[in-house]
Amino acid sequence: MTQTAGTLYIVATPIGNLADMTFRAVETLKSVDFIAAEDTRHVKMLMQHYGISNKVIALHQHNEDKASQGIVEKLREGLSIALVSDAGTPLISDPGMPVVRAVHEAKLRVVPIPGACALITALSATGVAITPFTFEGFAPRTASARQTFFKARENNETTWVFYESCHRILACLQDMASVLSCERSIVIARELTKLHETIVKLPLGEMLALVEREETMRKGEFVVIVEGAPKITDVDSELSAEHERVLALLLAECRLKQAVSLAVALTGAKKKALYQKALEINAALHDA
Ligand code: SAM
Questions:
Q1: Which strands make up the sheet holding 56-58, listed edge to edge?
Q2: For domain 119-226, which CATH number applies: 3.40.630.30, 3.40.50.920, 2.10.109.10, 3.30.950.10?
């Protein structure tokens, strides 16, 4: 690494409450040679609040590929630069990835200045199982893409988290309810750190009804957390020998999906357990 080269600082800023700015973030924004910001007007409001005067350049999704090389050159000249986004931690559903990659490829220093991040803030206060969890960024924008997205995650046993906008939150929950069980546990964390902060945990069906009923639940910024599907660990303890016998007979006569549906109707056993057992029986038949 070149000793005289400057450093790129990745500086987290508040997600709503201006007081959620760290001392280190303020000091860094004051001391760097310039600030690269997603929206120059936005960061200037923050700078004004903290008495920071510094040069600001725009670095957003439309110019970041091109601007990355310029940033690398400035660092090589020995200048230090702070990267900020409009809210929270840069690069988390925000611009910055091409710059950070280019700086690493140039073997120059990248230093994170940690702070607020909406998904971490939400996860820390909801009491859902966190480790492990999956962060999905923003949910897809169209109904069909959203339904595919939910379908693909229906059986995920770990918690997943995504961002959603006020324009789509209702449609998003409607699509979710058309795919997932209405008993699935959902958290909506809205307007975190702000005046109307709301954190609600409910079964999906009740959450949908709440968001349909209350206009305020469709306003602001949203983190949505979906608890993992119940584990199907001990299928054998859920199914009796008779359940298995009926399923095996049906599998000999019909396709897997139909055999499972009929077995559910005939035995009253859980669909997931029967499905899992059907996969096992079929796999054993293939191996034989
Ligand atoms: N970089 C940010 C972070 O660290 O969380 C996220 C930026 S992303 C473009 C903006 C999205 O994050 C919003 O649409 C919303 O889904 C979520 N978000 C940001 N601030 C939030 C807040 N105060 N409360 C709830 N969600 C928030």
A1: 56-58, 34-37, 81-84, 7-11, 109-113
A2: 3.30.950.10
Q: What is the mean pLDDT of the chain?
A: 94
Tens-place pLDDT, residues 5-33: 999 999 999 999 999 999 999 999 999 99
Residue in this structure with the two tokens 């109707």, named with its chain if needed: 265
**Is the Cβ atom of 133 under 6 angstroms away from ligand 1?**
no
Question: Ligand 1 pocket test: which of 221, 224, 225 has the largest number of ligand atoms within 8 Å of its C-beta?
Answer: 221
| 223 in contact with ligand 1, CB cutoff 6 A | yes
Q: How far is the CA of 247 from the centre of ligand 1 (A)?
A: 47
Fold of 7-116: Cobalt-precorrin-4 Transmethylase; domain 1 (3.40.1010)
- 156: helix, strand or coil: coil
Distance 200 CA to ligand 1 centre (A): 17
Cα 62 to the center of its chain, rounded Å: 23
Domain boundaries, the chain: 7-116, 119-226, 234-287
For residue 132, is the peptide bond before it cis, meaning its omega torsion is within 30 degrees of 0?
yes
For the whole model, what pTM was predicted?
0.82
